Recover the amino acids of this structure.
């Protein structure tokens, strides 16, 4: 397989057809991750029960604590239900956008490789319709299967680990390390099933079977391409996200200054500067991430095309 051609050609396609970046934005919806933290704070002024915080934060956490201390069961259940509803709604929207973006990217990459001069957004949306629900069903089916498999593995590990005070859990660590590359390979397999469905116009079951066939027949090439796109994509994402470390710096400085001086102006000013920087950089972050997603999906499409479509079929496509 000509890896150099695929890498260069993928960039040429997404640079010429920037409409693919919009589909890259849709395809990247819901794929990002976040991290949370635990806060130890003192509602009082002496900071004896935890790390001190600026007065504004202490008042904020105190109000939350008082609310939950006086809230009845119905209010708490209502808040939980509202949060759950919002999360599920956003998940559904992200899943629908992700599906449309994936189909649009694959079809667009194929047309661009065949020499189509212009990719119209309205036409792309129209051509997505015959594949949309099949791609959505495929990913839901495979996602549920992987989730069920994870539960079958994780739940016994957790139970046995708790019974043995963590001793058996340590014994499971080699198994967990072995499972990580297997799930990574499963992600590549799922990608090929999606490509098979869209490119060869298959139903869900046939797409899964075809995806497995092409993955098994070209295992070395697919694993190498997965490493190139996976490691390369991770490096690019880190570089893209690096400015956010500097964006949160004013908020950190403001929080520390506000804590030491007991002055809310430092805290508020730091947050305001960080928020302004985030608003300025957020469009850049979204555009670059969308371009990266478009590039990765285009590269996978060209890989599938090169490995699994006869040369005469490509020439006459």
């Amino acid at each position: 397989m000509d890896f150099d051609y695929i890498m260069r050609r993928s960039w040429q396609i997404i640079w010429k057809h920037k409409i693919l970046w919009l589909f890259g934005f849709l395809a990247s919806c819901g794929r990002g991750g976040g991290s949370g933290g635990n806060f130890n704070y003192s509602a009082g002024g002496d900071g004896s029960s935890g790390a001190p915080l600026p007065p504004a934060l202490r008042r904020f956490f105190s109000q939350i604590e008082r609310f939950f201390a006086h809230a009845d069961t119905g209010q708490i259940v209502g808040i939980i239900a509202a949060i759950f509803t919002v999360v599920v709604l956003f998940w559904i929207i992200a899943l629908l956008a992700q599906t449309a973006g994936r189909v649009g990217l694959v079809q667009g990459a194929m047309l661009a490789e065949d020499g189509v001069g212009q990719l119209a957004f309205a036409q792309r949306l129209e051509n997505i319709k015959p594949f949309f629900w099949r791609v959505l069903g495929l990913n839901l089916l495979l996602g549920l299967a992987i989730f069920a498999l994870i539960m079958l593995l994780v739940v016994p590990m957790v139970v046995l680990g708790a019974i043995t005070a963590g001793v058996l859990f340590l014994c499971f660590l080699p198994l967990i390390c072995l499972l990580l590359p297997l799930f990574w390979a499963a992600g590549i397999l799922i990608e090929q099933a999606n490509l098979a469905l869209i490119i060869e116009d298959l139903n869900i079951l046939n797409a899964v079977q075809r995806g497995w066939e092409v993955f098994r027949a070209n295992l070395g090439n697919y694993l190498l391409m997965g490493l190139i796109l996976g490691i390369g994509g991770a490096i690019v994402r880190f570089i893209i996200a690096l400015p956010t470390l500097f964006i949160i710096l004013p908020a950190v400085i403001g929080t520390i200054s506000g804590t030491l001086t007991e002055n809310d102006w430092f805290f508020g000013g730091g947050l305001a500067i960080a928020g302004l920087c985030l608003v300025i950089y957020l469009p850049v972050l979204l555009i670059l991430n969308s371009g990266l997603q478009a590039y990765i999906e285009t590269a996978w499409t060209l890989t599938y095309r090169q490995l699994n479509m006869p040369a005469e079929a490509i020439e006459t496509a």
About this structure: The chain has one domain: 3-32+41-131+173-316.
